[in-house]
Amino acid sequence: MARSNPLALLLLMLIAGSSFMVAMAANFYQDVDITWGDGRGKILNNGNLITLSLDKYSGSGFQSKNEYLFGKFDMQLKLVPGNSAGTVTTFYFHSQGSSWDEIDFEFLGNLSGDPYLVHTNVYTQGKGNREEQFYLWFDPTADFHTYSVLWNPGHIVFYVDGRPIREFKNMESMGVGYPKTQPMRMYASLWNADDWATRGGLVKTDWTQAPFTASFRNFNANACVWSNGASSCSNNNKWFSQELDSASQQQLKWVRKNYMVYSYCSDTKRFSQGLPLECTITNKN
């Protein structure tokens, strides 16, 4: 039986401790600003929790203090419970200007008992129309779940509890735009969109249920901070060249087979003149 090395054990404990400190260091007071809502957004629990609320008069939202150009981002959300029809909770990334880039997680509210709809989109140079929608395999209002975005030069991946649900690859060499030059901030919000959010706007917000509340915690940005026209990190970061391994690809296929309810790449009625180029490329692969 090999004898343990006290020095090695101490080193391992220090490494574990420092990793824990990094994971727990995120604090909303340091990381974000509540930007609208007239007090409806609140930072609580010593900076570890944000609640956003929506009533008949206003919703609320916050944004990251930093801008980022590539990264792996996580946020834990607990969505509006009960009859949330008409409401939209968001966690997304957006650049500035009229030709902006954007990566969206939007959670469309429901009538009590119906599933939430997870709405995703990718914009490049102000052009979106790349919607994909999913149901979830759990109740997102009962507890916190982790929603993540991997954004690197090769692809964008949307994750739910570590399981990939969507991948958008960089196909610039084939003429498809890809967001890679404009730094983005993280944004989150809760707002009323009953003109389209639930069953295409057929179900309106029931204001007798207000205020509606969504909760956010454990924002983590393992990312390149953009400041004064330069990035804080290099392509040495593990996630910078991260790709989906075979197990992740199988998970992605499972989600898309069982829980995807809409993809723009299948909407031949909407794109009657022909599907977007990335759809035809992907379908050939």
TrEMBL record:
Segments passing through the bilayer: none
Broad class of the protein's primary localization: secreted
Top-level EC class: transferase
PTM characteristics: Contains at least one intrachain disulfide bond essential for its enzymatic activity.
Signal peptide segment: 1-25
Matching InterPro entries: Beta-glucanase-like, Beta-glucanase/XTH, Beta_glucanase, ConA-like_dom_sf, GH16_AS, XET_C, XTH
Record-level Gene Ontology MF annotations: hydrolase activity, hydrolyzing O-glycosyl compounds; xyloglucan:xyloglucosyl transferase activity
Entry annotation: catalytic residues: E102, E106
PROSITE patterns: GH16_1, GH16_2
Keyword Methyltransferase belongs to the record: no
GO process terms (BP): cell wall biogenesis; cell wall organization; xyloglucan metabolic process
Residue ranges annotated for the GH16 domain, each copy included: 22-216
CDD domains per UniProt: GH16_XET (cd02176)
Any one of the GO CC terms: apoplast
Residues modified by glycosylation: N110
UniProt keyword list: Apoplast, Cell wall, Cell wall biogenesis/degradation, Disulfide bond, Glycoprotein, Glycosidase, Hydrolase, Secreted, Signal, Transferase
EC number: 2.4.1.207
Compartments, record wording: Secreted, Cell wall; Secreted, Extracellular space, Apoplast
PANTHER family: XYLOGLUCAN ENDOTRANSGLUCOSYLASE/HYDROLASE PROTEIN 8-RELATED
Role description: Catalyzes xyloglucan endohydrolysis (XEH) and/or endotransglycosylation (XET). Cleaves and religates xyloglucan polymers, an essential constituent of the primary cell wall, and thereby participates in cell wall construction of growing tissues.
Family note: Belongs to the glycosyl hydrolase 16 family.
Protein name (database record): Xyloglucan endotransglucosylase/hydrolase
Organism from which the protein derives: Jatropha curcas (Barbados nut)
